[in-house]
Design brief:
The chain is an alpha+beta fold and about 300 residues long. The protein has helices at about 5-20, 70-85, 110-115, 190-205, 230-235; strands spanning about 30-35, 40, 45-55, 90-95, 120-130, 135-140, 145-150, 160-170, 175-185, 210-215, 240, 260-265, 270-275, 285-290. It starts with a helix and ends in a 5-residue tail after the last strand.
């Protein structure tokens, strides 16, 4: 009998959760720039950004525990090639693994950053156990001025989720701005858990000064009865690109569910927005070009 991939993922999560855990001494956040020459400011007036759930390097396999290390490297190579081809300034990753037994026991974020040419990375390891260490990440070509990692409260039997944020210096014409960029992953299993996670994000981010770009796998659609995308939009005064437009599905194809989003504050404008067709994970990547200067009533 063929099992649904989410069922298999949940079973694996439960097994990992009830098994004995290892106490990790590593910090929850890694903030590293590999080259001293990385610029201190974002280089372009118009920012290119990408959000992608990289699925623990499994591509579309039913679960990463069944994927060989060689195949995992190949899957991550495909992601690096995709990023190299479109050259975003900042990349938001979810389900991004540090060395984990269930996905080849090497650091996926370090590997993708190196292969795609990103000297700087911020990686929040929100979920850690004997079998896995993973979370969300931001890759960039310029140095963040500041960064943070936040774990949401535990939500057993789901693995723990969270977000990372980084503040960048952004030169727009003659103006120097401080812009905050976030990569987040919400729980897939329970609406009540996502409610708590949204409230935590709103509490943390509502006092941010300057533009905000929030990207990630929200496990929510705009049309949901109590959409968590709408909750974020209302509470943080951010907006997505044409939330009711069809053909922008990110899970199970372009006509499937739109679970992955890029949300921006009012002073920013979408110059371009696309769901990329490349199959490099079980979610599709979302690409946007974003400029500064438009005010919305």
């Amino acid at each position: 009998m063929k099992m649904n991939s989410r069922v298999v993922g949940l079973v694996t999560t439960i097994l990992a959760s009830v098994a004995p855990t290892t106490v990790f001494s590593a910090t929850d956040i890694v903030d590293v720039c590999q080259v001293d020459e990385a610029p201190d400011s974002l280089p372009h007036d118009t920012l290119k950004v990408v959000s992608l759930n990289i699925s623990h390097g499994r591509n579309t396999a039913i679960n990463q525990i069944f994927v060989s290390k060689k195949r995992t490297y190949q899957n991550l190579d495909n992601i690096a090639v995709l990023l190299g081809g479109i050259a975003p300034d900042v990349v938001a990753l979810q389900e991004a693994d540090a060395p984990s037994r269930w996905s080849g026991n090497f650091d996926h974020v370090v590997y993708v950053a190196k292969e795609a040419g990103y000297p700087c990375r911020v990686h929040g390891r929100h979920s850690q156990s004997w079998i896995s260490s993973y979370g969300t990440a931001l890759l960039s070509r310029s140095k963040p001025a500041d960064s943070a990692s936040v774990r949401f409260s535990p939500s057993w039997p789901s693995k723990q989720k969270g977000y990372v944020s980084a503040t960048f210096d952004w030169l727009v014409g003659q103006e120097r701005l401080s812009i905050t960029i976030v990569s987040v992953h919400f729980d897939f299993l329970r609406k009540s858990t996502r409610d708590r996670q949204v409230r935590k994000m709103v509490e943390d981010l509502s006092n941010i000064k300057g533009p905000l770009i929030l990207m990630g796998d929200l496990n929510s659609e705009w049309e949901d009865g109590k959409s968590h995308v709408r909750m974020l939009a209302d509470e943080l005064s951010v907006r997505p690109f044409y939330p009711e437009r069809g053909g922008l599905g990110t899970y199970k194809g372009p006509t499937g569910k739109r679970l992955d989003w890029i949300l921006i504050t009012r002073e920013l404008e979408f110059k371009d927005h696309r769901v990329l067709p490349d199959i490099v994970a079980d979610h599709f990547a979302v690409f946007a070009e974003i400029s500064y200067g438009r005010q919305h009533e």
